Amino acid sequence: MTLKAKQYKSDTKPIWCPGCGHYGILNAITKAFAAAEIAPESVAVMSGIGCSSRLPAYVNSYGFHGVHGRALPMATGLKLARPDLSVVAVGGDGDGLSIGGNHFLHACRRNVDMVYILMDNQVYGMTKGQASPTSPAHWERGKLTPHGSGLSPFQPCALALAAGAGFIARGYGGDPNGLARMIYDGINYSGFAFVHVLSQCITFVPEQTDWKDKVHILDQPTACDDAVEAARRIHADDGFGKGVFYISERPCAAEAVGADSHPVQAREPLMV
Question: What residues make up the domain containing 75?
Answer without folding.
Answer: 14-250
